[in-house]
Amino acid sequence: MSLTTFIRSIRSAVQRDLLKMSSSELIAELERERDRRVLSIQSHVVHGYAGNKCSVFPLQLHGFEVDFINSVQFSNHAGYEHVKGQKLTEKELEELYEGLTLNNINNYTHVLTGYCGNVTFLQKIADVVKDLKKKNGNTTFVCDPVMGDNGRYYTPKELMPVYRDLIIPLADVLTPNAFELGELTGSPIETEEDCLRAVNELHAKGVKTVVVTSGVTGAQTNESLRCYASVKGSHVYRFTFPRLVGQFVGTGDTFTSLLVVWLDELNGDVSEAVKRVLASMQCLIRKTSSYAQLQVDTNSRAMCELRLIQSRKDLLWPPTCDQIQVEKIGQ
């Protein structure tokens, strides 16, 4: 399917959804209050989108309260020629969390973690999660084990054993890409069979829900990509969706934040939750890609930043997308 044909199909689907969605329904969704509060520990950029800059807005848009701690604070993401900023230390994280604890305001329904730049900081995150789960056994820990992609690390390799030995046993939901999945389980992930075997290993370590977001090379084509979702003791789902033009920073962070929303909204129905996340992501990436293509003559990284604000309707109300195929492939 050509990109033009796909765009037309998406536009038709959006138009159908708009006809179904009355203004009163949209207002009701925007006004709906949720008794949900997320502690999000991720990176932050002043300009553009990565880490918390991608995650906080979608969560707030859906009515989640979000307290966020920035593991790093940079001027911009690493795709630019120059990056300036600061890194939070494990001692500073401990002080921030101590302040929350002393005031008895460390009350969270969810903890969300993403990029972390050093081992001791990640170890301190484990301490924070343990304490929150001790206080409230129903707190859901959603972890994106950010280490690398496409066969290479862009964080210190020393993070991997900490994720494997400390973080994974605490996680309720884990969202690795194929490279990270392979590193965590000790075997490369090239085929669907590799992926499913490794997912079962994570379940055996206690992770209830695993979503493999991308990168299973043997299962994708030039036209389509796949991700996989599995719930321990239940079903495994394969999602096939169109490959769009461009690779953009922050898509994984946005994906995971929306997953928090829809798993909560749908009481853990991972099949429908991931489908809705993918529908929003397809719209976001398509809008970003179209804008970047129009601005290609400027040759600027600033033109490739996610069109997150411009996609707010699609983040809040995922359109019907017939191009996303969901298959139950195992148990």
UniProtKB/TrEMBL annotation:
One of its GO terms (molecular function) is ATP binding. Pfam families: PfkB. Residues 30-292 form the Carbohydrate kinase PfkB domain. It comes from the Eukaryota. One of its GO terms (biological process) is pyridoxal 5'-phosphate salvage. Keywords: ATP-binding, Kinase, Nucleotide-binding, Transferase. SUPFAM superfamilies: Ribokinase-like (SSF53613). It is an enzyme of class 2 (transferase). Its EC number is 2.7.1.35. Belongs to the pyridoxine kinase family. This is pyridoxal kinase. The gene is pdxk-1.
